[in-house]
Amino acid sequence: MDLNELSVLSLWSAMAMYMLAFIAFALDLARRSADVTAAATKAAATASTLEATEARGEIVSGRPVTTLARTDSDAPQVQARHSPVLRVALALTVLGFLLHLVATITRGVAAGRVPWANMYEFALTGTLLIIAVYLVVLLRIDLRFLGTFITGLVLALLGIAAVDYYVEIMPLPPALQSAWLVVHVFVASAGTAFFALGFALSVLQLVQHRREVGGEDLTKLRLKFLATLPTAAHLENLAYRTNIVGFILWTFTLIAGAIWAERSWGRYWGWDTKEVWTFIIWVIYAGYIHARATRGWRGSRSAWLAIIGFLAVMFNFSVVNLFFKGLHAYSGL
Amino acid sequence: MSRPSDYVDAGARPQAEGPGDGIVQPKLGFVGTLRFIWRQLTSMRTALLLLLLLAVAAVPGSLVPQRSSDPNGVIQYFDNNPDLAPMLESIQMFDVYGSVWFSSIYLLLFVSLIGCVIPRTKHHFQAMRSRPPRTPARLQRLAAHTEVTLEGGNAGTAIESAHALLKKSGYRTELYQGRNGDVSVSAERGYLRETGNLVFHSALVGMLLTVGIGGGFGYAAQRVIVEGQTFVNTLLDYNSFNPGRFYNPDDLAPFAMTLDKFDVTYEQKNLNAYGQPIDFTTRVTMRLPTGETEKRVVRVNDPLRFEGADIYLLGNGYAPKITVRDPEGSVVWTDSVPFLPQDGNLTSLGVIKIPDGLDEQIGMIGFLYPTAYKMETGAYTSTYPDLVFPVLTLNVFAGDLGINDGAPKSVYELNVDDMTQLSGGESGVDSIELMPGQSQELPDGRGTITFENVNPDAGAPADQDATTTDYAGSVARFASFDVHTDPTVGWVLTFAILILGGLLTSLFVPRRRVWIKATDNADGTVRVEYAGLARGEDPGLGEAVDALAFRHGTALGLQR
Ligand code: HEM
Questions:
Q1: What is the pTM of this model?
Q2: From CA B529, how far away is CA B541, in angstroms rounded?
Q3: Are B517 and B415 members of one domain?
Q4: Where do transmembrane segments lie in this chain (chain B) (predicted)?
Q5: Which residue has the higher pLDDT, A37 or B136?
Q6: B223 with B211, same domain?
Q7: Among A237, A284, A295, whose Cβ lies nearest the Cβ of B539?
Q8: Chain A contact present for B52, CB below 8 A
Q9: Do B333 and B451 fall into the same domain?
Q10: What pLDDT, in 10s, does the model give residues A178-199?
Q11: B38 near B2, Cβ under 8 Å?
């Protein structure tokens, strides 16, 4: 078996792990929903004697249990229990990540260059970075509730890449033989990873916002696990912090791309289709940052901008690469 | 109202919530109306809408080919959509990024930007010189707040050490005496955040100005050179020349460039990429009027910077050398003709025009197959881009080339409207087929044509077993170069770095106010309060206040 075959095998194993992690994360969400139902029933039972607020921090025989608490918004929040299935999901994600890392590194070694020179490889490295960013952020902020989303997204992207974009190892054409390939594409992928996380948080923010506006009755809630997640306002702050990191990386991508274009094509900017879309994405996220500081645009409206921004990123990676004519014809397909 | 409520310059104003941002002024008058429009234009909301509009307006330019980046695409678009194209043309869809509507959006945006940055800069300077504000009476109301009670000492010494600590941590400080006998230090830090923001926005303006005006001081030009040929850096010697508005072609640096050799390396180990070029190296000799010469190399991604001109290698291909003789055998035409590559194996298409010397004008459309392979249909294809088995096929036309009126015609196109086909196609006569070094009669005894072997030592076509013949170098290559100068790139880069630097500071430097207040209690203990207020996004505020309390405690010798 040569290195590239090892890479492919390793990738499919990684996908299997992500698949299992996805299921485990989904089970965790289901369990959260069940907890919310339980908490709601209990709250209803004690409502006559106790204000719901007083149930906060309740501990039975040293074991943490689901508790119901009030937050700034009117909608009630439920504290999630520690759950073994979540730990399993996380372990599977880490395992998948390691296999994914092996797949990426062996691909690079087999090709004798950085593993991001065609669409298959962009996808390989880009999704690796999504998981890496997610895991690193997890060390500081508990975003485990995003697990289903992140593993699902990465699984879908990898599936498409492995089936539709796969190409054998090719040497770098002269146009790509540049140190700027290493910098520009890597930073773009890293930026995309942060945008992906920000996108997930913004989507949740919108859903959570709807729930919070929708009122207090937990029993009527359709996506019950929402009651265990941070408030919309908190999600918005998390999304913002993630997106501005993405934005800075994207700004750098834009500048590095212009420097490379100057070296390679003799002009730093020429409104090539890929350049146009990189610019559009940059402007959308600049709009998003502004929206967060504009009265009347905070909250849901700015979240929509973040979502549109990420959709543009995905569009830029897929449709623009494959179907738009331009100088950046490096899909390898 | 250019900034939202949680910013310095918005703090002092009454916060009129609701529609209209509080700008409800009946009876504006002329100046009032102007001021109203100006205020609207420089509002945060307008800036946001213009930004979003800019993003939307940039989209069509990626859907429709643009003259600036893809002129041939535009021509093709007109051919394919004869009805739609003129309509799109009338709304400048083929020049989106220079169009009136796109320009108005970004110009408005930048006017808004300038109108926004100037007052903020003024404000910022004032803020940097003013004293940190009075300590609020009830610190426990603030988002980040913590307090301790000290067993000994007094408020004065506690505040002295707090003052020193905050100063050391880079805060600007001010001491205040409270009404209830308390003493406090008010501190503020993070002015750099606003500075970064202003640098960022100003650098955007700088970038636009440099790109907009600066582009006029340079030029961009193209030139195709065949191996062995020399190009002189003058207006006339370029294939195309686009000067900027303020560029004077007399300023072209006097030098000449000879293309000595164009080397290509093809992939031969990796069967998936067999024949893919992996290196282009162009060896040139540069010559100055003084007679000095210098050997240089131009490669993709590695332009040659010479005498203020930047020379880029953009394309390459074969330029077969062809000689045409009249029936008497004297040469009427000879040249190396660049053929345009049509595929990865360099099947190349070229046009030969012979205006004088023969009975009638002759035009030929030729295909060069560097490694020819005859398919079952009888047609040739090329199976490898290097010269393993080169074959040139030519269809000959006679008649009027349509170039007598002196109007420039593309050298890569042959207009056969006024010509008759003599060979190939439906003429009933076989196309001319030549290998390097071979000659053949033109149809109807009009003369002969020779496909010259420019490297005759390498192999002889007379060999019976042609596959063993080495045709390496038998056909010259050409390289196409872009030559540019743009004296403003340095400035563009400077502004780009300022943009990035400003962005980093403005997004990651926290701007916060903190207060430390000490009150002597009746029982001899001292109550010390710590509180913080964020200005803008500041996720670390709570931690920072706690850390401050901890360090202050340590400084006071608190046992833990
Ligand atoms: C060319 C158009 C513009 C672009 C690309 C742009 C981009 C940005 C970006 C990326 C930020 C976040 C980074 C920072 O704070 O420095 C920002 C912040 C800001 N911009 Fe702009 N901007 C533009 C025009 C404007 C205009 C016209 C105004 C005034 C009306 C404005 C006012 C602000 C303000 C107040 C902030 C601070 C917001 C915050 O700190 O959250 N910008 N802008």
A1: 0.86
A2: 15
A3: no
A4: 46-64, 96-118, 198-221, 489-509
A5: B136
A6: no
A7: A237
A8: yes
A9: yes
A10: 888 889 999 999 999 999 999 9
A11: no
Residue B542 included in any domain: yes
B395 in any annotated domain = yes
Give CA separation, B64 vs A168, A304, B93, in Å.
32, 27, 7
Query: What's the length of chain B?
Result: 560
SS (H, E, C) B99-164: CHHHHHHHHHHHHHHHHHHHHHHHHHHHHHHCCCCCCCCCHHHCCEEEEEEECCCCHHHHHHHHHH
Q: Which of B391, B501, B187 is nearest to A255 (CA)?
A: B501
Rounded to the nearest angstrom, the minimum Cα separation between A81 and chain B is 26
The predicted-structure confidence for B36-92, as pLDDT tens digits, reads as follows 888 888 888 999 999 999 999 999 999 999 988 888 889 999 999 999 999 999 999
Distance in Å, alpha carbon of A47 to nearest chain B alpha carbon: 31
Task: Identify the CA nearest to B159 among candidates B554, B559, B552.
Answer: B552
User: Which of A310, A285, A315 is CA-nearest to residue B62?
Assistant: A315
Backbone CA torsion sign across A70, A73, A75, A77: negative
Query: CB neighbours of B448 closer than 8 A, spacing ≥ 6?
Result: B324, B325, B329, B439, B440, B441, B442
- Reference B211, options B501, B507, B499, B482; nearest CA is B499
Distance CA B359, CA B380 (A): 31
- CB A166: neighbour CB atoms within 10 A? 17
Question: Is B131 inside a domain boundary?
Answer: no
Q: Which of A180, A297, A320 has the CB atom closest to B48's CB atom? A: A297
CATH of the domain at B176: 3.30.160.110
CA B414 to chain CA mean position, Å: 35
User: Which parts of chain A sit beneath pLDDT 50?
Assistant: 49-72
Same domain, B344 and B460: yes
What the block records as the tokens of B536 is 């803008």
Distance B117 CA to ligand 1 centre (A): 9
B463 and B542, same domain (yes or no): no
Residue found by looking up tokens 């859907």 in the block: B63
Q: Does B46 lie in the same domain as B168?
A: no
Owning domain of residue B46: 29-126
Among chain A residues, CA nearest to B309: A266
Question: Into how many domains does chain B fold?
Answer: 5
Joined together, the tokens standing for residue A260 give 């490379």
**Residues B343 and B385 grouped into a single domain:** yes
Q: Residue A92 and residue A206: Cα distance in Å, rounded?
A: 29
pLDDT band of B106, cuts 50, 70, 90: very high
Look at the alpha carbons of B159, B160, B164, B170 in this order and tell me if their dihedral is positive or negative. positive
CB atoms within 10 A of CB B492: 22
- Return phi, psi of residue B280, to 5°: -115, 125
Of A196, A7, A28, give the one whose Cα is nearest residue A115.
A7
Enumerate the residues of chain A whose CB falls inside 8 A of the CB of residue B312: 264-266
Cα-based distances in Å from B148 to A30, A56, A296, B1, B134 = 44, 26, 40, 40, 21
Q: ∠A246-A248-A254 over CA atoms, to 5°? A: 100
* Nearest C-alpha neighbor of B266 from the set B384, B187, B175, B355: B384
Q: What is d(CA A158, CA A135) in angstroms, rounded to the nearest whole number? A: 18
- Pull the structure tokens for residue B181: 């006998």
How many degrees, rounded to 5, is the angle at CA B312 between CA B306 and CA B314?
A: 160
Question: Integer distance in angstroms from the first to the last C-alpha of chain B?
Answer: 48
Q: Both tokens of residue B30?
A: 């002329």
Domain boundary, last residue among B467, B500, B523: B467
| B246 falls within a domain | yes
Buried b or exposed e, range B128-145, using 16+ CB within 10 angstroms: eeeebeebbeebeebebb
Our answer on whether the CB atom of B3 is closer than 6 Å to any ligand 1 atom is yes
The Cα-based distances of B549 to A100, B41, B132, B311, B552 in angstroms read 45, 45, 20, 62, 5
Tokens of A138: 């997890």
